[in-house]
Amino acid sequence: METMASLRVLREIEIQTFPEVTATLSVLELSQRIPFSVQRIYYISGAHKSAVRGKHAHKELSQVFLATSGSFSLCVHDGASLEKVRVESHSKGYLVPPGVWRILEDWSEDAVCLVLASHTYDESDYIHDFNEFLVWKNGQEK
User: Fold this and answer.
1) Distance between CA 62 and CA 117 in Å, rounded?
2) Range of the domain at 67
3) pTM of the model
4) In a domain, 89, yes or no
5) Active-site annotation holds for 128
6) What is the pLDDT of residues 24-66, one digit of tens each?
7) Which of 56, 58, 77, 128 is the catalytic position?
8) What is the side-by-side strand order in the sheet with 92-96?
9) Mean pLDDT, to the nearest integer, of 107-114?
10) Residue 39 domain-assigned?
11) Residue 3 included in any domain
12) Smaller CB count within 10 Å for the chain: N or C?
């Protein structure tokens, strides 16, 4: 598995940012930037630097990952190659489409990961075993 230098699976989502004297305002207009209707929003905070989250794929769910504070690494695998980005900017998010394995790791002490999801929680949409994911993915590509 090799890390890709350019984004192949992930799609970068630009977030409008307005720096002001007293603070920076970041605005994400969902209907203009997100290619799905957001059905669920959740966040991950308090993760230890060595914590590994995710470790699964979704069959139908799309997600956008954002760092509202601090930073973390987002690693995705499409069944053929690995891609890794550092999510740290308040002006960028990353879209992970369905059918992609995802791992979140290497958390900064103050990291808060905000996730926008296209569907409500459905356990049957998850694939928790990487080898099962590869078998499923190969079946989808035929």
Assistant:
1) 6
2) 11-140
3) 0.89
4) yes
5) no
6) 899 998 888 899 999 999 999 999 999 999 999 999 999 999 9
7) 56
8) 11-14, 92-96, 63-69, 112-117, 40-45
9) 96
10) yes
11) no
12) C
Query: Which CATH number characterizes residue 64's domain?
Result: 2.60.120.10
Number of domains making up the chain: 1
Q: Specify burial of residue 32 (Cβ count, 10 A radius: 0-12, 13-18, 19+).
A: exposed
Phi, psi at 90, each rounded to 5°: -75, -5
End-to-end CA separation in angstroms for the chain: 22
Grouping H, G, I as helix, E, B as strand and the rest as coil, residue 99 is coil
Residues 6+ apart with CB under 8 A from 126: 56, 57, 58, 59
Longest dimension (CA), the chain: 55
Which are the contacts of 48, defined by CB distance < 8 A and separation ≥ 6? 107
